[in-house]
Write a structure and sequence with these properties.
The chain has 65 residues and is an all-alpha fold. 69% of the residues lie in helices and 0% in strands.
């Protein structure tokens, strides 16, 4: 990941190609974060489901109504 100093940004003019490159990087970072969150959710859900199916008597409700 590259760091750009603020005074250098003012000096240089961004062209269309540079903006497109930055946009692609931002999109991929967002996709990476979303996939990571979904993977964590899937693993946690699978663990909880496995616990419920294999040992239903040991499972307690954390948020009872």
């Amino acid at each position: 990941m590259e760091l750009v100093e603020a005074d250098n940004v003012e000096k240089m003019m961004m062209n269309v190609e540079k903006l497109a490159e930055i946009a692609v990087k931002v999109v991929w970072q967002g996709v990476s974060a979303a996939v990571s969150s979904l993977a964590e959710f899937a693993i946690t859900s699978a663990d909880e489901h496995s616990m419920l199916v294999n040992h239903p008597e040991d499972v307690t409700l954390e948020n009872s109504m």
